[in-house]
Amino acid sequence: EFALVEEELSVTHLEAKVGCTQCHGMSAGHANDEDIGATPPDVMIGSDEINLFCRTCHETHDVKPDKVVTRWLERSKRKPTTQPVQQAVTCTDCHGEHKISSGS
């Protein structure tokens, strides 16, 4: 069962007093939906927009560039390869994204 209060991205932002509405709008239908995930929030941020969106609050990255790649390889669901990366690396590759999971 998905628990948003345990999801790393949510916890970090809530501790900083940044709630769901700052990124996703009021989303009343989503917030009141008992079937988690059935009603999407008012604002969805696509992978092609996420880096620019995150930078509206997070101007810089506090990790040295050589460490960013290492962390990305450790945490990413993508497999290391000698081939060029076809998709851009996004903030949520390392910092999580909201997902419904079975807890496994």
TrEMBL record:
Keywords: Electron transport, Heme, Iron, Metal-binding, Transport
Pfam families in alphabetical order: Cytochrom_c3_2
Cited InterPro entries: Multihaem_cyt_sf (IPR036280), Tetrahaem_cytochrome (IPR012286)
Molecular function, one GO term: metal ion binding
Subcellular location: Cell envelope
SUPFAM superfamilies per record: Multiheme cytochromes (SSF48695)
A GO cellular component entry from the record: cell envelope
Major place of residence: other
Claim: Lyase is one of the keywords in the record: no
Domain Tetrahaem cytochrome, chain residue ranges per copy: 13-100
Protein name: Tetrahaem cytochrome domain-containing protein
Species whose genome carries this gene: marine sediment metagenome
Lineage: unclassified sequences, metagenomes, ecological metagenomes
